[in-house]
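User: My notes are a mess, but here's the protein and adenosine-5'-triphosphate's SMILES. Can you give me a structure?
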Amino acid sequence: MNRVLITSAIPYINGIKHLGNLVGSQLPADLYARYNRCRGREVMFICATDEHGTPAELAAAKAGKPVAEFCAEMHEVQAEIARGFRLSFDNFGRSSSPQNHKLTQHFAGKLADNGFIEEVSEKQVYSNADGRFLPDRYIEGECPNCGYDGARGDQCENCTKQLDPTDLINPRSAISGSTDLEVRETKHLYLKQSAMKDKLDAWIDQKSDWPVLTTSIAKKWLHDGDGLQDRGITRDLDWGVPVKKGGEDWPGMEGKVFYVWFDAPIEYIAATAELADEKGEGPEFWERWWRTDKGADDVRYVQFMGKDNVPFHTLSFPATIMGSQEPWKLVDYIKSFNYLNYDGGQFSTSKGRGVFMDQALSILPADYWRWWLLSHAPENSDSEFTWENFQTSVNKDLADVLGNFVSRVTKFCRSKFSEAVPEGGSYGDAETALIADLTTKVRAYEGHMEAMDVRKAAQELRGIWVAGNEYLQSTAPWATFKTDPDQAAAQIRLALNLIRLYAVLSAPFIPDASETLRAAMDTDMDWPGDVAEALDTLKPGHAFTVPENLFAKIADEQREEWQERFAGTRD
Ligand SMILES: Nc1ncnc2c1ncn2[C@@H]1O[C@H](COP(=O)(O)OP(=O)(O)OP(=O)(O)O)[C@@H](O)[C@H]1O
Ligand SMILES: [Zn+2]
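Assistant: No problem, the inputs look usable. Here's the predicted complex:
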């Protein structure tokens, strides 16, 4: 397995994402991508903005901009913030790209050819005043379930019940407020997921190594109630991929677009094609990742996402791929996440509740957030961000353990020896024991990273940092120096090599700090094979510099100020 294809669920375009979105998809995907690159594997790491659908249209209308312009701008905003968090996408694409139009139309055409598309006549609400159909959020009214008056055509925000536009009582247009509505017959395309139910079920059954969160959601959708349902793949909207059968027009589908859920996952493929085009490469550039007849057989494909995206990735997208009856790559592993909550409630983009990615970067560098979020990733259950917990973690793990180690060792060496790895002395029992301990820990760390056990990997990495501190504490080179400077030199030599090892091992979690350490140690970043050997990389005489304070502690006043600043909602 030397090639790894990694995709993160694509963030929706309607606004800046919050820390929950980040830790539920993009950030752990980045951790895994970086780790695989460290291990010398060829990685293709793809993300994109998810740009179609009614929320995008409505957000654009609210911003007073044409939807295409709004999406282009918001894409840039999200891309810039992603760079700020050091998300190392090979491409951050756009689901509105021409490449995605073409691929989405291609898949729809193949599905139709193979009998997996059904045309269904439906009753839809038409607004005479607006001269258009009103899908999803374009229609509002009273919830038939709880009576809430602001319910939308797709869901009641008050009681969370999923709704159809025709369910609403006293409906009105969300665009004009008009109640001059009528129900009209219109045709839509459905993906016959039910026809692929057994195949999907058997496929999921093979995935015994997948997280239970992933398979249990898939099984629920496959078997609950009447089992897996067919799903509409078209919408009466202007903004989206026009419904076509491959390159051909689709009679009866004029003026309709594909439903956003259908084109969004296809964008993983399209974003890779976008990259090929950007680089001026031919189709073989991206097909070797996606077509098993074009070399993708030896690719391991891993997807990252929050739990609400699991049904689409375990069932709908595989149904699209399988139904095409073409040799496209199916996902090999789906890493899913529970939810991160914010200070006693939920993160919410629509309500503006929580800390958003731009805000986070405005108060602290990326590494602080990356470390906290990954070490508290909502893997086995939902987890919660609190400012107290964030402060404690940053101060203890990053400042007291890692930062302090680096600062003590480099400053001590500079003052007692020089800014170069000191010569003399030799390793004894304490060093042998440390190396044995670190060997166990490094191999465990690798195991957790391979398995995408994010929290366990963070724990282990922290343990590796702690081991260095304990070594320093027990051997006390500052005391040794007074009686046996040679021995102290050996201890510091080992400790400087440990800093180098920390730079290498920590790179997937905290890439900026890792680079600072690497630059200070003026060294390569080879992943440790034999740990004893790795700790012998920096030889006596190798010059280094004392890095600037690696991590600043968060003071109580800062924490209180942020707590207050982010307690309300953003508009
Ligand atoms: N609180 C959360 N914790 C972890 N992951 C989350 C959380 N909320 C959303 N996600 C995940 O973030 C990714 C991007 O989501 P997307 O941009 O579609 O926003 P969303 O699911 O509509 O959330 P919101 O409505 O809060 O913006 C998805 O994989 C989704 O499952
Ligand atoms: Zn309701």
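The first helix runs from residue 19 to 38.
User: Great, I'll file this with my notes.
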